[in-house]
Fold this protein.
Amino acid sequence: MSCSRRSRPTSRASLHLKYPLVPHRSLPTHAIFPLTLANLNLLHSSSPGHRKPILFSVFWPTRSSPAIDSLAKAKKGTKFTAYHLKAIFWTMKTVDDFNFEGKKALIRVDFNVPLNAAFQITDETRLKAAIPTIQKIRKDGGSVILMSHLGRPKEGPEEKFSLKHVVARLGEMLDTTVEFANDCIGDEAREKSAALGAGGVLLLENLRFYKEETKGNEDFAKKLSELGDVYVNDAFGTAHRAHASTAVVAQFFTDKMCGYVMQAELDNAQKVLDGAEKPFTAIMGGAKISDKILIIERLLDVVDNLLIGGGMAYTFFKAMGGSIGNSLLEEDKLDLAKTLIEKAKEKDVDLLLPIDSIIADDFKNDANRQEAKNHAIPAGWMGLDIGPEAQQVFANKIEESKTVLWNGPMGVFEMENFASGTIKVAEAVVSATEKGGFSLIGGGDSAAAVNSLGFGDRVSYVSTGGGALLEYMEGKTLPGVAALEE
Ligand code: AMP
């Protein structure tokens, strides 16, 4: 087939090429397809209408493969394996692909914000993140019905978990009146949704006041679906859960898509996994290896350096025959730690463990402290932060990296006296970013640390999803994402 001008793909989809997701199962796994403009066109035209590639992904599964961000950058003659093509067929719409005029958009947002005793919002990052998606829909002439969870209510409604505490601040941010429904399903929600005019905003009460939400109950999801014409999921932080509002509800909609938060999260995670510029350094910390085994294994395929700090480092030292005193230990993970060390060697990954620690004689901020090498922590003492030498080694490695992924604190950073390792790492990540590198901060504690230091705007991207990001990076299908697939 020739690549005449006429056969050149002209649609937005084939020229504007982007990411995710999980492979389509029907393609063979070993065939190789050279990329030409002609077969790109063929690819596009042979996709059924509703499966037209909208977001494209290019996976390069091995470290030696050339890294490219998108098909758009691929040179003519580039070889694509079926693995890449599978990804291409996996499609998902975004809010940019839809005109919301006259439509009611039911949006799953993540308004799980921290509240103080007076029910004031103490960190509005999540509210702020949701604004662009809401405004795009309102600007189109649509209205929005927002649904979210807040906290972990056990048995039905509880004042401290009510989303009504969010209404006033959200109204200020959107510069409009936000209606509130005291129940996320039922007559009031239906009537208020029906009454919304163009640009109107309705917030529903906490979804988790119904246990049907976390159980993924279909009847409950159907009731929610009746409130809108179009479904938008912008809650990346809960995308790894198959809850009623995050996944199950999608089946009741013809038009379903991701919002800007979800899109940015997936884009950034994918960018790190597939197109990371080298040297690529991953920093893993936090309490336990057991929570992070899968991601560590996956990362060994793509990173140049893996820095391990936090409580999980001590199991490695124990596995190598060191004395770790009372430091955190996962006895049943000693063999695993050895295996990870071996795997890192095989894959030519520089696995760096902290040389030293700040140790304490009690798990308290004002405990007695001293420094010690990590293979020789005296009995009765525990490592609660990486030591000064390790901080310097880690910082140097990070600063010379072009891509940095960070998940988990280096020590018990909630206690001031054991926060210096986490701060030093955060500063090094900022420095690598300012030198032109790309940095992705995994959600949870590392995101909290970066934000509390005021570094949120000085790194490339702070993820809003801890567990969801880890699961996505582990290669798992996120139910909230899969449900949007066309
Ligand atoms: P994770 O949720 O697994 O990312 O773990 C975060 C928690 O790990 C934080 O609450 C830290 O206080 C804790 N942590 C980090 N380093 C240590 C350590 N050396 N000993 C005990 N806990 C730690």
User: Anything to note?
Assistant: The pocket of adenosine monophosphate is lined by residues 286-288, 291, 310-311, 328, 383-384, 408-409, 411-412, 414, 444-445 (CB under 6 Å).
